[in-house]
């Protein structure tokens, strides 16, 4: 495996780990819990939380970094700016697709406090995107 690929997928691992740390204890601090593992489990026919977590991890470690590598040349700015733009793309996708599937509505509209949904998802995705960009470097 080339050094850049190793670095990219290691960045995906670190970013996914950090995102998971931020995502799951969110209910304890009264922000919406975004349980992607349960969502993926139910979309895959109720195969169990651990399998959903495995799929979530594989997406975060391999699929999204590969997508990042593919869109990287087309994003404007330095690599951190490109990471922020990639983060915004992930966030909009999550708010439009995953949020309704989790019962929060389109862009959090069904939640009692949509801005709280935006803030929580924003922090989680910002962490992922910035870590991915910072670790993957200038040429993922």
Explain this structure.
There is one protein chain. By secondary structure, the protein is mainly α. The protein has one domain (3-136). The protein is 70% helix and 0% strand. α1 (3-23) runs antiparallel to α5 (114-136). It is globular.
Number of domains: 1
Largest sheet, in brief, is: none
Shape: globular
Low-confidence stretches: none
**Total helical segments:** 5
Percent strand = under 5%
Q: What portion of residues is helical?
A: over 70%
Order of helices and strands: HHHHH
Can you give the mean pLDDT?
Answer: 84
| Integer-rounded radius of gyration | 15 Å
Distance N to C terminus: 13 Å
Instruction: Say how many strands there are.
Output: 0
Which structural class matches the secondary elements? mainly alpha
Provide a compact summary of the structure.
The protein is mostly helical and 140 residues long.
Could you outline the blueprint of secondary structure elements for this entry?
Layout: H1 3-23, H2 36-43, H3 49-71, H4 79-101, H5 114-136
Notable characteristics:
140 residues; mainly alpha
